[in-house]
């Protein structure tokens, strides 16, 4: 059924269609509307046979989900930013224990300085936590990925993180096609856990494992993610057959067939990137786009194949590996046979800085002309940075950095770009 | 022969031995049909108070629930010594997740049981004092506040024993640990710090709070049984001496626990809905020296010269417990 609704609400409805049994809620922007929506459905009875638990922290949210999942319940939570970091210990624990929890991450920057707007620093900081990480391009895909996530996670006994851009998607009202309960029930079987806490068949879960077996346990976690790489494309095909649209899978390719230049990106920025690429195509540039839906496991072979014909690769990243540069581009290097010199990392949109078509077009024209540096910060206010650096050279007690920069900027409205 | 009653009683106590009781009144542990939930063969130290307390507590809970029990365990001695891979001593469904989240994991299990219509399956969370009063305190308070249907059991040995005897917020004043050294003007742990977790639990107005020691195991069993009669959040704080961390002989565990109670250092009581409903009276009141002296962690109080001032402060704490909980029967019957 077509609906014009907020992204968060679309996700809440999709999660409800998956018949979750335990939902843990703790508020953090920009995720909160999702659990609010679910809470209302549980309280009103619209979502039956579900426990909605208001916990005291994100650490507790993930811990309650761990207990519920280990006891055989389908468990869900949602978080963002600082919340994801606050639960990090339990995030690793959930995957280590092989518990198929599904969690939405409404991607948001990490402080300090505190910032509630969108980038991918939160999810990418957890890239080695053992969860499957899927990135939604739009609200339709966000809701579809949740339905796939329960299927995928429960089949593999692995937790799945569905990442959607905070505010840009969570708070955007878009048209979505909401599946029916019958469709979802047909696609998503009842949760049959591999391990369960049950008095009639007592098991110990979470035992101490020493050097004699730890390597093997970790290897199997890796092997399971490699298995996911094999299974995800087939599940996307099945999803298309059942729901009549393309959602999920490992990658989305757009006009890459004859492309010399391929732009790689994750999430909602792909829409703007495609528009920009269309513009450049009209100018005769052979340029295409590779959207990464599945970031963990990293689809190395599929990316390599998609980039095989490219002379240069431009990776647009909403995160920064401080002291290195790009996180996604570091993964792309591994998958691109054309040499590291041809891979460009473009750090963009940190803390909600708008990524405009004009800026992207300028940057991509530079790339095509061979003028793009290996590492670029899109729309960086260089004079502002210079002033801050000068202040630090001149005074020992230069004061709090971010506050001084804000003072330099003066009173301005929050700038979109 | 399917049933052999075990003759079991505690020497040096005022409790009636099992052999004088009818079979149905005997302790859970005296029954050969006990579940041995924490089975033999685990790797606890000799004389471990925590292993003893856990064995009694969980077997009693198993009996009270007709064996419909699941346990979540915090990281710590109990978790490590009971499950060295690939062995486990647990005969019940048991999960260890993290150091600080046992209460929350138990909340999740209880929620799963409720949603699946299996509310006859009861849930216990357990941990040491570090996992309870320090790192797990947030999750524990949250579980209490929501009144989740979980019995949390804290085995209090007053320090982080698993990592090598470091101070926790349950370490008593003056006690030497690896991080409260017996040096300086005020050797050992400082006075005026630490958390009284049973009182904090009571402040949450949860249905049932109790304290117990491994010196009175029948009382411990009774409190676990009583806890299982309630729904909602319940808390039992069990005093468990640690020969390794406290520096006493491993055959003195029960005697040290009894001395803690008989001196007033550790008050044994029950509370319902935030109000104390019973306190276990001191039968023969003893000065705190009797409790402190056998333990090497307090040895610096009895050096040359002895620290009579610090011993007096410990006595004040014990006297306060005695007043507060009415631990000495003032009607004059016993003295």
Please report the two chains with the greatest interface, counting residues with C-beta closer than 8 angstroms to the partner's C-beta.
Answer: A-B, 44 and 44 residues
Query: Considering the protein shown, what is the CATH homologous superfamily of chain B?
Result: Thiamin diphosphate (ThDP)-binding fold, Pyr/PP domains
* Structural class by secondary-structure content of chain A: alpha/beta
Distance between the amino and carboxyl termini of chain A: 36 Å
How many β strands of chain A by DSSP? 16
The largest sheet of chain B has its strands arranged as 2-1-3-4-6-5-7-8
CATH fold-level topology of the largest domain in chain A: Rossmann fold
- The total of beta strands of chain B comes to 8
Mean pLDDT of chain A: 96
How would you describe the shape of chain B?
Answer: globular
Order of helices and strands of chain B: HEHEHEHHEHEHEHHEEHH
How many H/I helical runs of chain B?
Answer: 11
CATH-scheme architecture of chain B? 3-Layer(aba) Sandwich
**CATH homologous superfamily descriptor of the largest domain in chain A:** Thiamin diphosphate (ThDP)-binding fold, Pyr/PP domains
Main β-sheet, spatial strand arrangement of chain A: 3-2-4-5-7-6-13
Radius of gyration of chain A: 22 Å
Shape of chain A: globular
